[in-house]
Design brief:
Blueprint: E1 3-11, H1 15-26, E2 31-34, E3 45-49, H2 50-58, H3 62-66, E4 70-72, E5 74-79, E6 90-93, E7 103-107, H4 108-119, E8 125-128, E9 132-137, E10 142-146, E11 151-159, H5 166-171, E12 175-191, E13 198-204, E14 207-214, E15 218-226, H6 227-234, H7 238-248, E16 256-272, E17 276-277, E18 280-282, E19 288-289, H8 297-317, H9 325-354, H10 358-373, H11 375-386
Parallel strand pairs: 1-2, 1-11, 2-8, 5-13, 11-18
Antiparallel strand pairs: 3-7, 4-7, 5-6, 9-10, 10-11, 12-15, 12-16, 13-14, 14-15, 16-19, 17-18
Length: 398
């Protein structure tokens, strides 16, 4: 049996856990990252919004990320619900709010690989590719037991171990879960026409059908539909699936072909009332899970990390330890409202698409029409989506 001591231990080596380890090591905290990399390709991508770009710039990894990502300069929404109150297509341009792009789209696995490469060379950071099997706390801090028998002690443990977080369960933090009668088909596509750095989202009666640019004449697709239809689509061969996608996209990008892995993602959500316990902080999907709508999930996970880093630094300046109740209460305050608002927005959008009620269709159509035609309102909504003014962590302020 061996025992090693660190300032901070991060459990979970996904994009959120890797970024947390890099952020704390950057500030000089002796940090250990526990967990093995998940580099399975499942056709999923993430649109990194402006705050996440600034965060990755602060971590020193943005140039490497940008080299394999594609900018999102225009966001286009098309109502394809068949509603009586269907508004015309709406386009939103990043230049209206002074940005070159709303965000950058990158394959999840490419992002993880880039962050892992940086972590392998970071000072003050130790990588331990094992699984944590036990977690206890005392007055001095926390102790993690690893599968190989080693004990890791730390003043603060950061749980970035996903929606089924073992650390959250051991700490007794309750999680509320829910599901939708939908699944999402994810896939990487090649197509004949240029996407012109435009993300196009078709609002259908079964959920959003979203094409997001990748480098070259390639795009990622998230097709949210009924569970039965998603399973049927997933069972198609590549040629038949590409044709179904082209038809659903109204040949918007011309002929298509499957150009990468595909996935099938159940639509579900998770939330917690407490983001912390004694010497433990939850980040990413350990704290909140979103369906793949609106590019909120990983961007919120990065905001968790940047907010926790601020709380730890501010707590240190006030004489509190990284895992103290005072420090972690500050972290809770910084995240609670932000996550609740984003959860409500994503849930509300999805449910309005599923209902066939005329009043709901009217309100949704009227809202999109207002955003299209009222410039100041459109710019306010765009800024809040990618550049929120209140409570932005320091590493995301540029």
């Amino acid at each position: 049996m061996t025992e090693n001591t660190y300032d901070i231990a991060v459990v979970g080596a996904g994009a959120v856990g890797l970024s947390a380890a890099l952020a704390f090591a950057r500030d000089g905290y002796e940090t250990v990252l526990i967990g093995g990399l998940d580099v399975r390709r499942d056709g999923r991508t993430v649109a990194l919004l402006n705050g996440s770009v600034r965060f990755l710039e602060a971590l020193g990894v943005w140039p490497a990320v940008a080299s394999v990502a594609s900018p999102l300069e225009i966001m286009r929404i098309i109502d394809d619900t068949g509603s009586l109150f269907r508004p015309p297509p709406a386009s939103f341009r990043a230049g209206e709010i002074g940005l070159d792009a709303f965000g950058w789209n990158i394959e999840n696995v490419a992002l993880v690989e880039t962050l892992a490469e940086a972590a392998g060379h970071a000072e003050h950071l130790t990588l331990v590719p094992e699984f944590a099997t036990g977690f206890t706390t005392d007055e001095q801090g926390a102790a993690l037991t690893l599968a190989g028998g080693t004990t890791i002690r730390a003043g603060l443990v950061v749980a970035a171990d996903g929606r089924n977080s073992k650390l959250r369960q051991i700490a007794g933090i309750d999680a509320k879960t829910w599901s939708y009668p939908q699944s999402a088909v994810t896939v990487i596509l090649a197509h004949d026409r240029e996407h012109r750095d435009t993300s196009t989202e078709f609002h259908t009666r079964h959920g959003p059908f979203t094409l997001v640019p990748l480098p070259g004449r390639r795009s990622s697709l998230v097709w949210v539909t009924s569970k039965e239809e998603a399973e049927r689509l997933s069972s198609l061969d590549d040629a038949a699936l590409a044709l179904a996608i082209e038809r659903q996209a109204q040949s918007h990008l011309g002929a298509m072909r499957i150009d990468g892995p595909r996935g099938l993602v159940p639509m579900s959500g998770l939330s917690v009332n407490r983001y912390w316990s004694r010497h433990l902080a939850l980040v990413g999907e350990a704290a909140h899970v979103f369906p793949p709508i609106g590019a909120q999930g990983l961007n919120l996970g990065f905001r968790d990390v940047a907010s926790l880093r601020d709380a730890v630094v501010d707590g240190h300046d006030a004489g509190h330890s990284a895992g103290s109740d005072e420090t972690l209460t500050g972290y809770q305050r910084s995240r609670d409202l932000d996550v609740r608002l984003r959860t409500a927005a994503v849930d509300g959008l999805n449910r309005t698409l599923l209902t066939g009620m005329i009043p709901t269709d009217f309100l949704r159509g009227a809202g999109l029409l207002a955003l299209s035609n009222i410039g100041p309102l459109r710019r306010i909504v765009m800024r809040e989506g990618v550049l929120p003014r209140v409570g932005v962590p320091r590493l995301m302020q540029g």
